[in-house]
Amino acid sequence: MIKKIARSTLQYALVLVLAHQCSSFAFAQGSLEADNYKGWRLSSLEIEGLDKGLTSELKRGLVIPSQFSRFRRRGPVFYPKSLTEDIKRAQLFLARRGFPYATIKPRFEPHPTKETFSLIFNIIPGSPVAIESITLEGFPSSVESAARVTPGLGKGDVFSEIRVERTRASLESMLKHAGFAHARVTTDLWRIDSTHVKLGFDAEPGAMYLIDDILVEGANQDLVPLIRKTSGVKRGARYSPLILQEAQDNLRLLDLFRQIRLTTQEAAPDSLDVLADLVLRKPRSFETGIGYWTDDQIRVRANWIHRNLFRAGRGFSVGGSASRFLQTANVSLWWPALIGARTREVLSAKVESQLEDSYDLLSIGGELSSIYRHSLATTMRFGISVSNVDVSIDTEMSDAFIEQGGLLTVVSFRWTRSSVDNRVSPKSGTTTWVHTEWAPNGFVSENHFLSLETSGALFRPLSNRTVLAIRIAGGIASPTGESLDLLPNKRFYSGGASSMRGFKRKKLGPLDTNGFPLGGEIKLEASVELRTPLVWRFRGALFIDAGQVWRYIEDISADDLEIASGPGLRLQTPVGPVRADLARRVRKTEATQPLWVFHLSIGYPF
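^ thats the sequence. predicted structure below, dont judge the formating
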């Protein structure tokens, strides 16, 4: 006989646990053996009888394992009550994953001389509960065929609360994306026998809604047209949660609001208004900082921003920075959503002075750029800049820098994508960027070149606390047209705290007779780093770096690659890790450079 037993998977799991608990909990309720170890120290807890994935997941949900501390030499004090509660938790855990008839038998392995013992949970899963059939009821004909394909469950699959709930949520989301804003999907379970159930999904779709208008609260009147345009919400569009998510992402990219909350309210029986409840950020801010790095030594910076100086989100900033090698000053004006909802047009002017060992360079110019945020993860930037470059050569090698500057017009494009879970201290995800510059013939330019540079990093957790980080970067550039050489600031350099750590700043690659860096037309770098916690806020690292810079493209050779390795120490702070790295060169193709190099900086190298 088929009997309906629950309206939710949790209710079903509880029914099966209560039916089975008399035999399963017999030990926890009545055994005297556990009382014999009351007050003893527990040295370890192991689980036998489950696969690795279920074992790890079960341990995270128990109380006893959480009492162990990696900083405590002795294990926790044992109380029989904790064991009883954990057996109940384990029984419910297994029932919710299709094993309601599991038997859990604790086993004790004592060490009497130390009054410690090991505890082993011997689990016999028992017969699993399988899904006999799946039914769908109440789904509109417009989505019914798609709904029948969606379930990630099938006949004969082991009942799992997680998979059932995931399927229910997926079906409900499908209805909402089809315009049924208030759709609900519930779960029904019928027990066929002790090891089989019938699963049903019941839909209550409600009415299909269209978007009527977007209502704005908490923003200045001059920002309302910008908010409407940037949100991308269009009147008459079919409602979908995706519309609200995209609108929220678009508004966040404006950098005008401290809080963004989008909800819906009925405007008519078949239409909804989107309500944007916003909290403005302070429009003005001043940022300043000072720090010490082994690459630049002392570095200072300051920046003043007004996010809405010219109304309608049009902002202004002025700032600058200074270090031993580089000094900059810049002003910028921007206009959001001038072309599209996710664009920002920027007009900027910049003065830059470079004081390198082999040259001094002064650049004065401006740039017009358009930034397109395809998503929160992906950005594209297109720009055209015109500048005047003045170069003073400080090397004895007369052929090191042939081009002496002049007018320079550059067309640039940059694509960036980041999917990391944390931008300051990533543990998983990837970052990738590609940057290209072209100074074409026939433009207002006395220097012509083409360059391409790219970098990619991968972050993978090896455990709950240890992270493997891998980076590969490279660049290639060449003079074009009548130009015979690349300008000094358009060449590639390597070596330093965030580059190839076996060398000091820019010391890897071509050098003049005094050991001053000359840069090159092609660069290749690679890094592998293992990051793991130590104590308190300290993290340790082991790394291997490789790389080289070649003066000309035709000089490239794998035999020239330099390799370095070493340990690192990081101190986690609110602004990012303070990082110390000590690198030792493995290969010694550059005999004039030191064997050991120490770096101190802020932030991860990649």
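The chain has five domains: 3-124, 130-204, 210-280, 283-336, 337-602.
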